Amino acid sequence: MTAIGPSAPPPATREATLREAFGCEGAGLHTGRHARVRVSPAAPGHGLVFRRLLKGQAHDVPALWPNQRTRPLCTALQVGEGPLVRTVEHLLAALSGGSIDNALIEIEGEELPIFDGSAAPWCALIARAGRIEQDRPRRYLRVVKRVEYRNGRHKQSIDPAGTFTVKGSVTLKGLGQLRWSGPIDPETFARELAPSRSFGRLKWALAAKLFGRFSREPVLRGASLSNTAALWGATAVGGLRMPDEPVRHRVLDLVGDYALAGRPLLGRVTAVMPGHEHNHAMVAILLADRTAWQEVEIDEGGEPRPVG
């Protein structure tokens, strides 16, 4: 097992859920429509499951790779021809980054609230609700050989490692190359990644909003300067929260998208110009290569033990 440095706590040995439920509401980034959400504790082995409430009927949508659907500028989920749940990545990142394995997410509406464009509001709600470990070993996907994805200048790889770490980079006109690297654990995620906001070039965002207004597919209908870092030149309108905010947000999204693997990851991710479609492609490649990973539990000594 790869040695764990002092900045990376050892992987949890037990599954966890919320100590208590919480509710929230707000408008979506793409639909612009208001939605109400309630996130509740769930039993061991339940996983992260969205429940779409539609015309008095509940439709469960597990946050798993087979349910991923391609939609512009977000991660969406759907079971068969059932109702869609879109823009799930920030909540999934906050739950996954916070080591929450089991939760029921009920939503009245199609799209989760965007809040300020970051995952910080979700992290604050999760922190207030609390985390409680459960009487079930936590199972991981332990990467045992390198897997790679390439699409032009977009590249990702996952190498064997004893914890989940990410090294991400993006290159943006006016800002140059931005890099972030670190472990994905509750403290690091909440402090370094969660505050970073969704972003885009102002001129492209305006064009996308016009496209969304006249198309059947909602795109950025709810976007505004209060929930998006609108890039202009070498900064954003109103300023960036940190100089490398864009790459931090791309890593945040990657954490949420990788949660669709259904198990927390033990691996070292290197991502050049990550984005939703590239994250989804990397997850598909990983899961398709059954020789690239093992399902393991972590014993009390911190060592992985294969299961199944």
In total, the number of strands is 21
Tell me the radius of gyration.
Answer: 19 Å
Class from secondary-structure proportions:
alpha+beta
- CA-CA gap between termini: 19 Å
Query: The biggest beta sheet, please?
Result: 8 strands, mixed
**Can you say what the CATH homologous superfamily is?**
lpxc deacetylase, domain 1
Give unreliable regions as ranges: 1-6
Strand content: 35-45%
What fold name goes in the CATH topology slot? Ribosomal Protein S5, domain 2
Binned, the helix content reads 10-25%
Using the coordinates above, name the CATH class: Alpha Beta
Order of helices and strands: EEEEEEEEHEHEEEEEEHEHEEHEHEE
Task: Describe the global form.
Answer: globular
Overall tally of structural domains: 1
Mean pLDDT: 93
In the CATH hierarchy, the architecture is 2-Layer Sandwich
Compute the number of helices: 6
What assembly state would you assign to the polypeptide chains in this entry? single chain
GO molecular function: metal ion binding; UDP-3-O-acyl-N-acetylglucosamine deacetylase activity
Keywords: Hydrolase, Lipid A biosynthesis, Lipid biosynthesis, Lipid metabolism, Metal-binding, Zinc
Catalytic activity: a UDP-3-O-[(3R)-3-hydroxyacyl]-N-acetyl-alpha-D-glucosamine + H2O = a UDP-3-O-[(3R)-3-hydroxyacyl]-alpha-D-glucosamine + acetate
Cofactor: Zn(2+)
Structure in words:
It is built from six helices and 21 strands. It is an alpha+beta fold. It has one domain (14-306): Ribosomal Protein S5, domain 2, CATH 3.30.230. The strands form five sheets. Strands 11, 12, 13, 14, 15, 19, 20 and 21 form an eight-stranded mixed sheet that branches. Strands 2-3-9-4-5 form a five-stranded mixed sheet, covered by helices on one side. Strands 6-7-8 form a three-stranded antiparallel sheet. A hairpin with a 2-residue loop joins strand 17 (229-232) and strand 18 (235-236). The longest helix is centred in the C-terminal third of the chain and has 14 residues, at 245-258. It starts with 13 loop residues before the first strand and ends with a strand. The model is unreliable at 1-6 (pLDDT under 50).
